[in-house]
Each structure stands twice: as structure tokens, then as C-alpha cells.
Design brief:
The complex is a heterotetramer, with two copies of chain A (244 residues), one copy of chain B (208 residues) and one copy of chain C (242 residues).
Chain A lengths: L1 E10 L2 E11 L5 E4 L6 H8 L7 E6 L2 E2 L4 H10 E4 L3 H4 L5 H11 L5 H10 L15 H13 L5 E5 L7 H16 L3 E6 L2 H7 L2 E6 L2 E6 L4 H6 L5 H5 L9
Parallel strand pairs in A: 3-8, 3-9, 6-7, 7-8
Antiparallel strand pairs in A: 1-2, 1-4, 4-5, 9-10
Helix pairs in contact in A: 4-6
Chain B lengths: L9 H27 L5 H14 L17 H8 L1 H19 L7 H23 L5 H27 L6 H39 L1
Chain C lengths: L2 H10 L7 H16 L3 H19 L1 H24 L4 E5 L2 E4 H27 L2 H10 L4 H30 L6 H32 L16 H17 L1
Antiparallel strand pairs in C: 1-2
Classes of the chains: A alpha/beta (244), B mainly alpha (208), C mainly alpha (242).
Subcellular location (chain C): Cell membrane
Protein name (chain C): Cobalt ECF transporter T component CbiQ
Organism (chain C): Halorientalis brevis
């Protein structure tokens, strides 16, 4: 369980989070919807201690987060964050080095673990490749593998479908399912209503710096009010099946 | 390690501008000539300078308490050679003064001489003489360490010339030894850390 | 000092002198201080530019001034200690000469005076405005263009570095000295690769918009001539006449 | 009218374009659909001469494109390209300098034109701001303004909705409409079916290096076959209007 209590955070003059009370239950898929700039990424970064709130508390597994070095190390091993753009996340030169980056920093040197994760993501044959020569899809897989290699309890996904086509979105959907099957709790921030509703057990909406809605699903009228994506409803009137 | 704005008396500020100017002009002309070629455009030159600038913003393991920052000129001279490095370093030092308050405008000539010209040149000579006998990584390590140490020795000499312990050559030598000795506490380990960074970087670049 | 915040400071500062004139103003003041025979020139520069700087940027100006001063003090201490001459003070094995004190005072005042000028320039003038000043001084086109492009590339690469550092922190990259060095090597390489692709992207973007070898430059009207005259006059009179 | 005839282009060993015959009529909105990596960006870059084909011909306004410097300068003034990522496109440090970049390169120094474009994009008060201090949405606006300031005949938009929420997508939709109203012909590459169908007069699909489909709209079955996005259809079953 990850919870926040009256979380407040300013960036310069702007109140990004203005008293957020958030709950994500362990074992459930929680989706945080919100328009561009609503503070979704800022909220996620509080969950693994990359940001420290101005006031309020973050609870992970029932305990309040502490901000000394040892507690943060422990927290970041338990809560993995997958960035929106894999280019921002791949820090090591080769695939193998990047996947092993987190575990090695944590002092864990288990080659078998790395090999297992690499093969789960179909990267066994790519270990020596340089990250910058990978395709977009391969980079995404490496970034997911690098986070899973730390064997986290929670995985935070920031706009996981940004820039992906249908095939890519479906793959991310399957990945989310595999997380819950493995007992890992995913928390997803997105403005992509189609994707988010497909995977969500619980839906929350972040707007104006607070949690503005919570439920099992998101009514269409709300998606529109929150400026989320639903272009497709208005437009797609073409008949189906008229071409093989 | 840069000399602060206003630290050198006018005479010495001018002297170092006089020494740096022809070399930087030569480097500029040479870089401009390369940039007319399609393979390395103005955009490439600019990004190379930006890369060296940003290297100095990297977090490095702390030595003796304070955080240290690589100068990047060792890496630059191995990648681009001494003439281009003289030009790039001038840009980098200018922006370090204007964006970070490191170094200064009146001391730019002195800082370019030590960090952009003499240090990289000696580092480059070390690289060229080591390269036939050892691998790229070790040669780069040597070049970066020597470039860094030379830079700080030249800076010590520049300060000593401006502030001799007593008039005459022996006063300058005394001062230089004092400055070099005191700065060595931080600069010797910083040079080695920078060498390790440069060597690691070059080995990755060689892979790609 | 953090880079991004500097740009916010520049954006919100309201200097009395504006445009290219502001750059010439600071350059001239630096040269006057450098060559002034009297220490009074340094003091008058210090007073004038601290006033102008605080007036333009408030407390942010003092933050910018403070950092170089920390670097300055150790060097001054050395100069005091090793300069020979008749002894002014002695404690244990150390003795301090009158000449050393005099020299440190001169150097310290000149340096602090100059730093207040440079810091004023930093908080009030953006790089494009400075480059425009260089351009009107007939600096070669190649240097002008590369300077502007370098500045843009610095902006981009610093942003990329900040993102990479954040990601590395989340994956425990800066936990110990050893992991920090390894992480720095990796990040340096990532930045190198990003530099290469950025250079291509920048070049494409320029070509796509019909680049033929000249960048347009900033044009802010100059304003505040009276302040310039008063301040430079003060420094000159203090330096040469008093 | 922009057309291509048997356009072929290799990137290394890979045949990205393998005989593309494409047509975009002047005055119409043409959308090029295709999955990630289908070669949409590569095709767009042929239209303004950033890439030169290995074989085949590009026609702009009926004339074959020539690759000498003068012809290219002229071509790039007529055909503006908006990159997917504004960070790749903004070349000058400040907003005003960036918007004026194209026109000044073309030898046009009309401050009024720059001012007009700046105000059209609501950037009048931002002229002196540094590009890296802008928000994502502001950067996008500057990148559009910079292209329009050249008064092109054609505007190429590469994945214009990538990373945008519903509000952002709608704004881009209105921008496309404003282009056709002003007599400028937009050509859009995207994998975003919802957005693309909303704005398209003509739809083409690029797949396997050739134009695989052309029509007025895109049947759903095809979207699926081409790996485009249509997540939302399978998932959104929530009742509408149950909240305010």
C-alpha cells in the first residue's frame, strides 16, 4: 500500500500538489489520470523519495517515508520508477550494464538474476548491444527490465504509452498484467484514457493539485472535463469490416 | 581550478591575454575551416563545446570533502586535438564565467592559457607518445591526468608571477611552490578521478 | 549555483541599464577597475554594483556574488602568508608582513569589486544580449554563430543531464563513492551520445528552416545612459583623481 | 500538390522506403498513418529535401525536386517541417530569435510579420524568454510559429499529438483547420487514429515501405492490422453522464 496524507509540493511559485490524499492498495492496479502538467509525475516521484514534500507524509507499506540516505536506498529498492521516455532512463552504455545498474548499486551481484530478467524481456541476445543503437520498443523493454531487476514491490509507470502505437500499447497492457501476477503492485500515471481504463482496478484523477475523483472507472463526461484524451469518440464513424 | 575575476593585476591580465590570443585565433581559424566541411558543421562544433561545458556539471565522487568537477579538456584534446580544444575551451571558460561565476572575464586570458592551451597541449603530447605502447583507455587516462595536473601547475605559476614572495626569480619560484603545494591537496586526486572518467568515457566511445 | 534558477533570475531582474549598453557598461567597468591605480576605485565599483545588482535582482544577486568569494579567501590567505617584508604580526611559526597585508588588501578589494561587476552582468544580461554586444564589436560571424548555438546546446544538454541524474538517483546511482564514479562515467557517455544526436537534430532543424550560415541576433533597445555615466565617472574619479 | 514516384530510401541495411507512390492534393488535409518505425518521418523529410532519395522522384507543385543549394533553400521556404519533439526544432536561444530564424535566413526582415505570428500563437509577452524555460505546450507553440513565420505553402507535421492530452490534441486539430483556412496544405504523419481521422480529408497508410492503403477514412479492421491505436474501443464500457 502506498498512501499520501495532505501532500503539498511547490515548484517555484506554483503549487503543484496542494494537499493530495492518495491511496494505492497492494495487489491492485491503480491508475492516476490527469491532464498534461497536472502534477502526475511530481506525485510519482514522491513515492520513491526522488522528491521530498514541502509538507504532508508519504506512507509506503504503512510506514512513513524517511529521508536519510539509508532509508532512501531501501525505499528506492522497493519502489521502482519507469520514466516516460526510456532515453531519460537508460544510464549505462550497454543493455546488460543498464539492467544490472540498479542491483549493482544496491550491492547485489547475482548474474543469474540479471540473466533471468534479460530473458523475460527477450533481451538475451542483445546483452552487449549499445543502448543508443536500440529501436524505441527495445529501449522501452530495457527500461522495464532495469527496474524489475531490482525486484521491487511497487512499480511506478509514468505515461507508459506515450508515443507508442497500438501494438506497443497492448504490450504494455500485458506487462502490467504480468506485474500483478508476480505480486508486484503497479501504479500508473497517464492521460491516455483508453489504455488506463483497460488496465485499471482503481481510477483516481489528479486535477488542480488534489485528488478530484476516485472510483472503479471513469465516466466519459469526466474525461472531457479533465481534458483527457477521447478524441476517438467524436470522430470514428467509419463502418467496420468493409475491407477484409 | 580557475583564477577568479579581478584576482590578477592589470599588467598580468594583459600579458596572458596577449599569450592566449594568437593561439585561440589560430584554433578558431582551424575550427572554422573544419566546420566548412560537411562532416563537422557549426552545429557539431557548438555541441562539442556544450558537451565539455556540461561535463564540468557532472557529479563526481568527492575528494577531501568538497565536490570536484572535471575540466573535460583532457577528453577534448584526445577527441578533437589541441587547436580545436583551444577554441572550444575559450567558449567553455567564457560560459563558465557568464553562467556560473567560475573564473572571470579579466582573467579569461590566463585561464585559457592554462586550461585551454598548455594543459591540453601537454596532455596531447602524452597521449601521442603513450598511444603506440598502450591501449586507448590507458593513453587517455595518462593524457587527462597530465592535462589536469599541468593546468594546475600553470595556474600556480601564473599566480606566482603576479604575487612573488619577494622580487626576483627565486621569489617567483618560492610562491609557485607554495601555491602548487597547497592546491595539490585537492588537485592531485581530482586529476586522477578525471583521468578515470576520461578513460571510461573513451573506452565506451571506442565500443560504439 | 543552479543553472535553471539563473535563467529565472535573469528573466525577473529589472536592471536600470538595458540592452547592449549594459554589456558595454560592465565590460568598461571591469577594465577601469583592472587598471585603476587607487584602491578607492575598487571600493566605489563595489558600492555602485552591489547597489545596482540588489536593485535589479534582490537577494538573488547576493547569492550569485557569494560563491566566488568562497574561492577567493584561501588564495588571499596564501598571499598574506608568504609575501616577504617587514613583519607586521607573528603567531607561532607564521609571520605576516606589511607588504603581504597591503597586497592582499589590494588584490582582495580589486577581486571583490570585479566579482560584483561580473555578478551584476550575470543576473541582468542574458547570453543572447551579450552576444549581440560582441557582434556589434565586429566579432567574426563564425564565433557569433557558434556561441549562440553552443548556448542553446548547453541548455539542452543540461536538461538532459538533469533527467539522467534523476533516473540514476532513483536506481541508487550516487549511493557511494564507487557507484558515483561509475555512474558519472556512464552519464558522461550517455551525454556524449546525446550530443551526437543533438548535433544532427540541430543541424537538420537549421537546414529545414533555410539556414544559410547566419543566425539572427537579439535586439533589445539600450536604456539607462545616465546611470552608466554616473557609475563609470565615480570609478574613474575614485581611481585616478582622489 | 506533393507527390512521390517509386521513392526508395535505405538506412544502413534496412529498406525504409521501398517504392513509395504518394499523393497529397493542395488544399486537402492528408494524413499518413503507420506504426512506430514504419518510415513516416523518413518520408516527410523527403518532401522538404532534408533527405535525398536513393531512387525515385519527389514532385512539389508539379516540379521534380532538385538538390542544388538554391533549389533546396527555395523548397524549404515553401515546405515547412514541424518536428515531433520541439526540443529538436528550436535552434535559437530566445522565443523571438527562434521565430525569426526562418524568415531571416530567407532574407526577409519584416518585424511586423514576426510580431503577427507571435501574437497569433499567443506569444507576444514571451518574446525575450529563453526557449529552455518554456513549458512543453509553449515550446510546441513556438515550434509551430517558427514554421508559419516562413509563410510556407505546405506544412508537414510529424506526430503532432505525441504526448499531448485531450486539450492539446484539440488545439492541434484547430491549428490544422486554421492552416487550410489560410490556404496552406497540411500533411500529417501519425499513428494516432483518433486524431488523424478527425482532421483528415484523405488517409494513406505506410506499411512495409510502401503505401498500402488510400481512402477517405480508415476502417477499424485495418487500424488493427496495421498496429495502430484503438485500445479505447475494447475498453470503454462505462456509462456516460452519471456524474454531473
Amino acid at each position: 500500500m502506498i498512501e499520501t496524507e495532505e501532500l503539498r509540493f511547490r515548484h517555484g511559485d506554483e503549487r503543484v500538489l496542494d494537499g493530495v490524499n492518495f491511496t494505492a492498495k497492494a495487489g491492485e492496479v491503480t491508475v492516476i489520470f490527469g491532464r498534461n502538467g497536472a502534477g502526475k509525475s511530481t506525485l510519482l516521484r514522491h513515492f520513491n523519495g526522488l522528491l521530498e514534500p514541502d509538507s504532508g507524509t508519504v506512507f509506503v507499506g504503512g510506514d512513513p517515508v524517511a529521508y536519510d540516505d539509508d532509508s532512501l536506498t531501501d525505499l528506492r529498492r522497493r519502489v521502482g520508477l519507469v520514466f516516460q521516455n526510456p532515453d531519460d532512463q537508460l544510464v549505462a552504455p550497454t543493455v546488460e550494464q543498464d539492467v544490472a545498474f540498479g542491483p549493482r548499486n544496491a550491492g547485489v551481484d547475482e548474474p543469474e538474476r540479471i540473466d533471468r530478467v534479460l530473458s523475460e524481456f527477450d533481451l538475451d541476445s542483445q546483452t552487449e548491444r549499445l543502448c543508443n543503437t536500440l529501436s524505441g520498443g527495445e529501449k522501452k523493454r530495457v527500461s522495464l527490465a532495469g527496474v524489475l531487476a531490482m525486484e521491487p514491490e511497487y512499480v511506478l509507470l509514468d505515461e507508459p504509452t506515450a508515443g507508442l502505437d497500438g501494438t506497443g500499447c497492448r504490450a504494455i497492457g500485458q506487462f502490467v498484467e504480468s506485474l500483478t501476477d508476480a505480486g508486484i503492485t503497479p501504479i500508473i500515471a497517464t492521460h491516455d484514457v483508453g489504455f488506463g481504463l483497460t488496465v485499471a482496478d482503481t481510477v483516481t484523477v489528479l486535477d488542480g493539485g488534489v485528488i478530484d475523483y476516485r472510483g472503479d472507472t471513469l465516466p466519459r463526461s469526466l474525461a472531457d472535463r479533465y481534458g483527457l484524451r477521447q478524441y476517438v469518440f467524436e470522430s470514428w464513424t467509419a463502418p467496420d469490416g468493409d475491407l477484409s | 581550478m580557475h583564477i577568479m575575476e579581478g584576482f590578477l593585476p592589470g599588467f598580468w591580465a594583459l600579458v596572458w591575454y596577449g599569450i592566449a590570443a594568437p593561439v585561440v585565433c589560430y584554433g578558431t581559424v582551424k575550427t572554422a575551416r573544419i566546420a566548412r566541411d560537411q562532416s563537422m558543421t557549426k552545429a557539431h562544433v557548438a555541441v562539442a563545446a556544450a558537451f565539455i561545458f556540461v561535463l564540468s556539471a557532472l557529479k563526481m565522487p568527492s575528494v577531501t570533502g568538497s565536490t570536484s568537477h572535471p575540466t573535460g579538456t583532457g577528453i577534448s584534446v584526445v577527441l578533437f586535438g589541441p587547436a580545436v580544444t583551444a577554441f572550444l575551451s575559450t567558449l567553455v571558460l567564457l560560459y563558465q564565467a557568464l553562467l556560473l561565476g567560475h573564473g572571470g572575464l579579466t582573467t579569461l586570458g590566463a585561464n585559457v592559457t592554462s586550461m585551454g592551451i598548455v594543459g591540453p597541449l601537454v596532455g596531447w603530447l602524452v597521449f601521442r607518445s603513450l598511444r603506440p605502447y598502450t591501449d586507448l583507455q590507458k593513453a587517455t587516462f595518462g593524457a587527462a591526468v597530465v592535462a589536469d595536473w599541468t593546468t594546475y601547475l600553470v595556474t600556480s605559476l601564473q599566480l606566482a608571477l603576479a604575487f612573488p614572495a619577494e622580487p626576483g626569480v627565486s621569489g617567483v619560484v618560492d610562491s609557485a611552490v607554495t601555491f602548487a603545494g597547497v592546491f595539490s591537496v585537492t588537485q592531485l586526486p581530482v586529476g586522477i578521478v578525471e583521468g578515470a572518467l576520461a578513460a571510461g568515457l573513451m573506452s565506451y566511445i571506442a565500443m560504439s | 549555483m543552479h543553472h535553471a534558477s539563473l535563467e529565472q533570475i535573469q528573466a525577473t531582474s529589472s536592471p536600470r541599464v538595458e540592452g547592449r549598453l549594459n554589456a558595454y557598461f560592465a565590460f568598461t567597468a571591469l577594465v577601469l577597475v583592472l587598471f585603476a591605480p587607487s584602491r578607492l576605485a575598487y571600493v566605489s565599483a563595489l558600492v555602485c554594483f552591489v547597489a545596482l545588482g540588489v536593485d535589479a535582482a534582490g537577494r538573488d544577486y547576493l547569492t550569485v556574488v557569494r560563491l566566488p568569494v568562497y574561492f577567493l579567501l584561501p588564495s588571499l590567505l596564501l598571499v598574506v602568508l608568504f609575501t616577504s617584508g617587514s613583519t607586521a604580526l607573528a603567531f607561532g611559526p607564521f609571520s605576516v608582513s606589511w607588504a603581504g597585508l597591503d597586497r592582499s588588501l589590494t588584490t582582495g578589494l580589486r577581486s571583490i569589486g570585479s566579482i560584483t561587476i561580473l555578478s551584476y552582468l550575470i543576473v541582468t544580461t542574458t547570453v543572447p544580449q551579450l552576444v549581440a554586444a560582441l557582434q556589434s564589436l565586429r566579432c567574426p560571424r563564425f564565433v557569433i554563430d557558434v556561441s549562440l548555438l553552443t548556448y542553446r546546446a548547453i541548455q539542452i544538454l543540461l536538461t538532459e543531464l538533469a533527467r539522467l541524474e534523476l533516473a540514476a538517483t532513483g536506481r541508487l546511482g550516487f549511493r557511494t563513492r564507487r557507484t558515483t564514479l561509475r555512474t558519472s562515467k556512464s552519464l558522461a557517455f550517455s551525454l556524449f551520445l546525446k550530443s551526437l544526436s543533438r548535433a544532427e537534430a540541430l543541424n537538420d532543424a537549421m537546414l529545414a528552416r533555410g539556414y544559410d550560415g547566419k543566425l539572427p541576433s537579439a535586439t533589445t533597445a539600450s536604456r539607462g545612459h545616465s546611470y552608466v555615466a554616473v557609475v563609470l565617472g565615480c570609478i574613474a574619479i575614485a581611481g585616478w583623481s582622489l
